[in-house]
UniProtKB/TrEMBL annotation:
Residues 1-110 form the Cyclic nucleotide-binding domain. Gene3D superfamilies: Jelly Rolls (2.60.120.10), Winged helix-like DNA-binding domain superfamily/Winged helix DNA-binding domain (1.10.10.10). It comes from the Bacteria. Keywords: DNA-binding, Transcription, Transcription regulation. This is Crp/Fnr family transcriptional regulator. It comes from Blautia producta. GO terms for biological process: regulation of DNA-templated transcription. SUPFAM superfamilies: cAMP-binding domain-like, Winged helix' DNA-binding domain.
Amino acid sequence: MKKGQHLYREREEIVTVYAVVSGTAALYKMNSMGEKKVIFVLGKGSLLNEEVLQDLPEPVSCEIMESARILAIPRKQLLALMETDARLMRFLFFSQSHKVRRLYRQLKNTTNATRGEKKMAAKLWKLARDYGKKEEVGVRICLKLTVTQLADMLGTKRETASRQLKVLVEQGLVRYDRNTFVIPDTDVLNRYFKEE
């Protein structure tokens, strides 16, 4: 699938479970003002919509962020496999619990007590950990990521995200050039967003 294509949209009736074989996809919701809030960016080996096993409409939309290959598994077939395969069950539980833990961290970071640039620092640290490649100058986030996409992940406006990014760049915590982010020192960035 190509960047920008939708695999499915919120409230669609889906009978297929999707997994990322290569590339990345974003799960998001639209708020009441029509703004996109990216909940997860998921890459290779990630299940996108295991909640479809409940036989309810999709709770989120899925947009391809980087050209991706997606594996489609019919729900009935997956349910039949789950009856006999304990490893598959464990994988599904781990996938779901990993997402729940990430949601807990996101909730912690959405409190008003956390300044915007700290939220951005936390998000960039997470992206560097999940999609980073160590280089001589630091850790390069191997996603072509616009400030608008980063704003969507933070649930903020692009202009606000630009101001927050400027703070991090001026402090030397992040380098940004042509949709590429480099974190000179992930430990320093980690300490920055954790300090009160």
